[in-house]
Amino acid sequence: MVDRAVNNFYFPGMARPRTFDEAQVLRAARDQFWNKGYAATSMDDLMQATGLGKGSLYGAFGDKHQLFLKVFDAYCVGSVESVKKALEGPDAGALERLRQHLLGTATGSAAPANRRGCLLSRGTSELAAQDAQVADRALETFRALEDAFVRCLEQARAHGDLAPHADPRKLGAMLLAVQRGLEAVGKAGMDEATLRGMVETAFEGLPVAAKRRR
């Protein structure tokens, strides 16, 4: 019988065990891609940011494209989970949760520290036209975000805050477009008051139930 304890030792010719924190390395790589963009980021940049040699990066994550896809996927998953958590709650207050979420996007997008935008937007705008893997992952993420909005709008309609004839799917798609637009124009330097005004205008146009008009 083979002694399983040998798996705890390193022998010449075997792949060396990793001696770095993978999550920390991925965060460093993410920030590098986020700050400079995919094309402008070189392997030397990634080596300097992560503190790893080229051989270690290739061995652990593959080439630059594979590393970016891993980082991009993790960012997309985290973004969707964050939105879902922010919108969780009972039917009562669902519409207000969604409004506050978009107002938060407006405020965050106007902050000078956030002028780099989000990695989802940056990666999509730079790569989606020529990279099917990035395009597919981005579209999947946008659909998941839309679904989260739709769920909130369905709750609002069930509670009577939206009119019975309101279409949560169409409204969710519209509000997703508003959110993505906020991030784009905020990156260009548009002020917070204007961005928040866009959100309020979008919500004023929603088909509310008669009881909310009184």
TrEMBL record:
The keyword Secreted does not apply. Gene3D superfamilies: Homeodomain-like, Tetracycline Repressor, domain 2. InterPro entries: DNA-bd_HTH_TetR-type_CS, Homeodomain-like_sf, HTH_TetR, Tet_transcr_reg_TetR-rel_C_sf, TetR_C. Residues 19-79 form the HTH tetR-type domain. It holds the Pfam family TetR_N. SUPFAM superfamilies: Homeodomain-like, Tetracyclin repressor-like, C-terminal domain. GO terms for molecular function: DNA binding. This is TetR/AcrR family transcriptional regulator.
